[in-house]
Design a protein that fits this description.
By secondary structure, the protein is α+β, with helices and mostly antiparallel strands.
């Protein structure tokens, strides 16, 4: 399943770091961040709990940049 999420991030470099961090989360098949559109597209592994995975994604993205936000 694929879903798009609105994000808030200050710079393109931070957006790239968010994308790399999100791709390392268990349950994420592929994540991509579009800095210009302020969107994160996430494709989940089959059978993954979307809510639990996105909590983890949100947590790792906050580690990259304290001001970064992923709106679930």
């Amino acid at each position: 399943m694929k879903k798009a999420y609105k994000i808030d991030v200050d710079c393109a470099n931070c957006a790239a770091k968010m994308e790399a961090a999100a791709n390392k989360v268990d349950g994420v098949k592929e994540a991509s961040v579009n800095f210009m559109a302020l969107k994160m597209n996430v494709e989940f592994d089959d059978g993954a709990d979307e809510a639990a995975v996105m909590k983890k994604v949100r947590k790792v993205c906050r580690r990259v940049d304290d001001d970064a936000e992923v709106y679930i």
